[in-house]
Amino acid sequence: MLLAITPPNATPKVVQHYNALLGAGLSMLLLRLPDATQEQYEDCIRAIEPRHRSKVILADYVHLVPVAGLGGIHLKASRQKEWKHWQEVAQAQRIMVSAHSLDELESLPFCPDLALLSPVFDSISKGGYHANIDLDECRSRLPKLPFPVLALGGITPDNYPLIRSYGFAGGATLGYLAEQEDAMEEAFLRFARPEVLTIAGHDPSSGAGLTADVRTIERLGAYPLSVTTCLTVQDECEFVSCQSVDFIPALRQLLKHHKPHAAKIGLVASLQDVYTIADMLQEAGVRQIVWDPILQPSYGRDPLHADWTPDLLHKIFSYCSLITPNLPEAELLFGTDWEHKLQQVADTFHVAILLKGGHSANRDSSCDVLYQPHREAQSSRVPRTPYDKHGTGCALSAAIATALAQGETLSEACRKGQWYVDALRRSGKTRLASLPLSGERLKAEKLRRGKLQFITDSPDLEEILNQCRAALQGGVRWIQLRMKAASTEERVVAARAIRQEMQPYPSAILIIDDDVEAALRSDADGVHVGLDDLPPADVRRILGVDKIVGATCNRIEDLALRSLQGVDYVGIGPFRTTQTKKLLSPLLGEKGMAALVRFNHTLPQPIPLIAIGGITADDLPTLAGVGVQGIALSGIINHATDPQAESARLVQLSDQYF
Fold first, then answer.
1. Where does 450-514 have alpha helices with state H?
2. For helices 556-565 and 38-46, what crossing angle results, to 10°?
3. How much is the pTM?
4. Segment 225-238, tens digit of pLDDT
5. Burial label, 365 (beta-carbon count in 10 A; 0-12, 13-18, 19+)
6. 155 CB contacts (<8 Å, ≥6 apart)?
7. Which long-range contacts (CB under 8 A, 24 or more apart) does 302-305 make?
8. CB 354: neighbour CB atoms within 10 A?
């Protein structure tokens, strides 16, 4: 994994350059600005695209981490003894520290998620700061530490491949990239990508197994290595048989010259082979080993491994970082899928278990549960999708291994793997999945359709459907379901009914107002939150980064906060008095909206602004002149004599002005 550190005097303009690197595969960015004010830190955070913020580590003002949805904190030596306090302040999943000797690392008062050790080579950014780390000592002592360590100091594309041989999990670079600000992306691409190894069977359909793993690893930004364990006779509809392949010579040769950052073990001819593979990987220094225990093919008739001893299983458990069984596999491996039993196995053998939720009876969502040693179990959900896919278990474990190789925490890697598989399931109606389009690209396409947003205004389901039907028939393609006094269950029912109305209109978008749970269960395109609702960072953790998160603003201070939170669009208003909201913020009018637009243009990442509140058709030229990107309205359609015709007229006008 590769971490970049911002120059100490970085401005928002400089920080913006790192967006391209994060998009190209940079594992993490340490935002470190010595002597900077909180306002300067906030401006630099705003310069980072929201989709990349989970990869950002913050060095100061760590209370901004949960606000902006950042990935973790860097603790100075003076803060390390109070690490629990700082973790609570930041609500951080990842804590990183720095050290200047192996002794410092070995005497830390807690186990961090990541550490930097410097100077490994002569520093580029600090003149006269020379290498002072015994690399031979690193080779023997670093593998014994329970956390990964990155080499810092003079890291370049030429010496970066060497540091893995000394026991480092990767490197951190400051000077090499900072000195090439105008060509930073080109400089970054000279670094080798993290290597991820898949050891699995060959599926002729390429829907599962080795070839599917390679596609996943490559697409997610790592370099794929592969070793074949068996040849199968199967396609996406039926598994017939498998023939074992002598994989040991190929694996031994590969590990001579490659040290993968992570490895995934898939289909094997016997569980003894799993043990042999895991033993070879651990001997080679591979720290992250993910085992996908394929005990029963999805479309096969017979179990693959009928007999094994508890002793053999226990040895396998002790080698693995993560095991990813579904419910039937958990019952075969552990005798039960009871929560306490899985947690007991995790604690005893120091192995994490991700219990996949695809076989659960819940019709709304699929829930994966992660059991980690001596930690509280974590659950994460995605909506149920109508199409089944061949090889989703393979894709999940390969995606998790890739995320781990790129420096993600285990819980974040499992969540990202779940989102990736969800995208695969949505890629088409056949059992063979296509590589999904970029979620960020799809979201950008949806946001472009948001220049005319229709908001429902009724507690009655039948009236809501009549409103939506008229709007859709008139050409409106963005509907926000607003049912202020309703329960989550009532909103879910309404959202599903609106989805039915939307079926003839594939480009239609559904946003749920103020109810994240309803948005998840109804598989809506996103959610709109007010200032007093769930923070956007928490919304993204629940719904995923590919869902739309909209928000409301009335003041410049609100817009500054929304920019820091990284929302996808902002509804600004009210423009004038409206009858559809009981608690009305101060009216903005043309002058107030113009002030918000001007401030928005000063932000490193301007946000699409949507005017709302008492808007009529005659206001569109004025609002377009002010500089907003669209309008949201309700009453003008709902109270029209012919709502469909009024919708068509507004669609035409919005196309003309926005």
1. 461-473, 488-502
2. 60
3. 0.89
4. 999 999 988 888 88
5. middle
6. 120, 121, 163, 171, 172, 173, 176
7. 303/332, 304/242, 304/267, 305/270, 305/271
8. 29
